[in-house]
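fwd from M.: "can u put these together and see what the complex looks like"

so here's what she sent:
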Amino acid sequence: MTRLMLILAGLVLALFAGALVIGPANAPYWDSLSALFVDDGTPLTLVMREIRLPRAILALAIGASLGMAGAAMQGYLRNPLADPGLIGVSSSAALGAVIALQTGLAAAYAFGLPLAALVGAVLGVLLVLALAGPRGASITLILAGIVVSALAGALTSLVLNLSPNPFAASEIVFWMMGSLADRSMDHVWLALPLIGLGLALLATLARGLDALTLGEDAAQALGINLTRLRLALVVGTAAVVGASTAVAGTIGFVGLVVPHLLRPFVGARPGALLWASALGGAAMLLAADILVRVVLPTKDLKLGVVTALVGAPLFLHLIYKTRRQMA
Amino acid sequence: MTLLSVSGLTIQRRKRTILRDVSFSVGPGELVGLIGANGAGKTTLMRAVLGLLPAEGDSSLAALPQKARAQQAAWMPQAREVAWPVSVERLISLGRLPHLAAGQAIGAADRAAIDGAIADMGLEPFRHRTATNLSGGELARVLIARTLAQDTPLVLADEPIAGLDPAHQIQTMRLFAGLAQAGRSAIVSIHDLGLAARHCTRLILLGEGRLVADGAPGDVLTPDNLTDHFNITAHFARSEAGLIFQPLDVVGMD
């Protein structure tokens, strides 16, 4: 258990360092790292501090967000196929961003896009909470999430449909694929407080999620306040996923695959899976973002495309494993 | 001293009254069998008593704050849900959650309660097995052990012996009777009237949306009650081996 944490933490650290030293500037690894800490007056310091560092921090934070939110959602719904997008936050954040791109808000103000995405996420989560009702049952949350996702998806399509400007439309499509390219420290400062708050909130769920292994009735009788648990889950997920989507677009499969992959290593305990998935998600996104830069450095390969390309076969493998166990 | 007092409990769901004006109290050392035909409201009553369902009237348990309630009463629902492939030992250790402060790890007292519950239910060979791979009866025993590990003065169990083999049915009822002898109490809903008659110190019969009878097994399982509320006739005898109850025939069902 602690060994797993050490292995994962070591992996994240190594990949974080890798994300810092690998890139098109092609400087020697050691020079890159020293340029990060000591301003030597060369452009390398600028590259390290203004380009690679924010990108690596965002990959780490967003990966951790998606991993932990996925583990929390799966634990709460007691379903290994649940994913943080289920409550409609990522689609409503995407809708906000798409509207910003379409109206020119994104071009007019530097932070027009991420702020519009955050507004979308907040509206989406308020709608989900209102639809799901006051009691703590999970089924109403799923239904409310599906409604909000579908609505946000339909409105996004509508914006694309009515877009008179083909450039805006293609920009929207590319943005929705998810990327960390050209993000600045300002993006980090915008996303990090929300992500920190959300992760702290999600981390409090460990015990309640463990108790939910026995079902909602038994968990309540074990002293777990399901109404409060669901509220913390929804608000925490909305904070991390909303902030992530706002600065990086929609990145799929991390929240679905990582908890699934790590579950056997924590004895299937949903509480322990939270931190393991946060580390695992960070590692996966850092690795994917390195891959983006190494495989097709000139083509601006999108991060969300890579996570889906890596995630889908991984998931396929897990399905085969499950099938073998059931046979 | 009473462990539970319920007075004037009325439960409505979807504008239908399930139970009206139910009152009873449970003291230490009782094994209360909750009996009644399908749909009589046994599960509903237990959930309302625990505060899991909104109800009018008073239940001393439902009035407690959630954490205090979890230290006072353990609940084994009828649905034998285990969502994740956790080990038997981990599953049973969930019963200790109400006794742990925030961030507190499992200590020596918790470990003793867990080991005790595993020994009581004869689960030592299963300790490291995966709970989701067990048979229905084995899983039921694991979930009973989870309830015992909670180490509460009162245990409420919804059909705990359904699906168990005869030996484990008798063993489980003896175990609950043992709890009662040790000064704790249990309320179990049960369909096997023979086992209920032999092992429970007291029976509560639900029917027609109310509490019909409450008393010693011999006083509750009267021919009239059996015909009116279970549509059966039965043979009932006192022998040196204890009460013997055998349902014989169906009456008045058309």
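replying to her w this: The radius of gyration of chain A is 20 Å.
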